[in-house]
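Q: Given only this backbone (319 positions), what sequence would you predict?
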């Protein structure tokens, strides 16, 4: 009992659990004070990625050369940033605080949560123009021709995958490699957004970044899909996630979408249009098309799942 009331013991414990308090400090500050997009350093990162691609990704080059150029550009940008962050980490006076700042920069959970709330109410008001414009800021697919049914599906997919990539996976790589790992993962997400192979001008240049991101997503998204599937019939949802998710174009995303579709009885997937070209995607889940109520429910359940994820990650750091 005396140890619990001793401030010195608490200071020693806090010093030993630097990564734990850095995690919660970053999440707390991010939720209260998310970094606005116009002040995010990733806007300059995307601009540089676009500029670099314009110099080495030529339509007249052979596909093999463009594919190699994409891999080398990824190594150049990712390797340079990794060296800079690792070197900086060795110079700072407080590594936990440094990790907390990097994690705060890497997180984008609050904006995607607000996105879910805003687009749900736009759908409820049948304001297709506002919903399409909001969706266009988050996806690379064309949104101008989407009906309310298509908007609902795209919004649910964006909310699920956005929460996973901008929060769950970021925290997972924070556990593995600290703030440096979290920021490097987020940097890769932004590179993929710029160099996505779904744009014809970046195929096959963006294949390297897309494949690396999909590989890194498998474990954290698979684990998070298990949390999302926890309900009255978890094994049924997990079975559906395994059967349908492996037919999706990327394994981690497929598991998460299929588990969520099964648990909330939602119909997801289906065709999508990228730069005027219709792409056939696997239909996933079963049930109703996501509407306002389903998006708000999904947003609430994702928040609960993220809190469970944070609790489990905290236990890992303590142990």
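A: Predicted residues:
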């Amino acid at each position: 009992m005396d140890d619990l009331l001793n401030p010195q013991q608490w200071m020693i414990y806090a010093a030993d659990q630097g990564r734990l308090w850095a995690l919660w400090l970053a999440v707390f500050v991010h939720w209260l004070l998310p970094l606005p997009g116009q002040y995010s350093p990733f806007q300059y990162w995307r601009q540089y990625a676009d500029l670099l691609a314009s110099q080495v990704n030529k339509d007249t080059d052979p596909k093999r050369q463009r594919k190699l150029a994409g891999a080398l550009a990824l190594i150049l940008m990712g390797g340079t940033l990794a060296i800079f962050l690792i070197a900086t980490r060795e110079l700072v006076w407080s590594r936990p605080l440094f990790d907390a700042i990097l994690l705060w920069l890497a997180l984008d959970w609050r904006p995607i949560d607000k996105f879910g709330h805003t687009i749900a109410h736009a759908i409820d008001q049948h304001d297709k123009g506002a919903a399409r414009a909001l969706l266009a800021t988050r996806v690379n697919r064309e949104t101008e021709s989407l009906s309310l049914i298509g908007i609902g599906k795209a919004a649910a997919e964006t909310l699920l995958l956005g929460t996973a990539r901008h929060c769950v996976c970021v925290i997972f790589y924070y556990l593995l490699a600290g703030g440096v790992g979290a920021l490097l993962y987020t940097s890769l997400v932004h590179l993929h957004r710029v160099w996505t192979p779904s744009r014809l001008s970046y195929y096959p240049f963006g294949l390297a970044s897309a494949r690396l991101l999909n590989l890194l997503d498998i474990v954290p998204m698979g684990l998070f899909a298990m949390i999302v599937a926890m309900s009255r019939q978890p094994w049924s949802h997990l079975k559906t996630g395994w059967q349908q998710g492996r037919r999706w174009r990327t394994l981690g995303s497929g598991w998460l979408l299929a588990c969520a579709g099964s648990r909330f009885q939602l119909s997801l997937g289906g065709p999508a249009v990228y730069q005027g070209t219709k792409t056939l995607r696997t239909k996933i889940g079963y049930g109703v098309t996501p509407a306002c109520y389903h998006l708000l429910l999904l947003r609430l359940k994702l928040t609960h799942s993220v809190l469970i994820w944070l609790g489990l990650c905290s236990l890992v750091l303590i142990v």
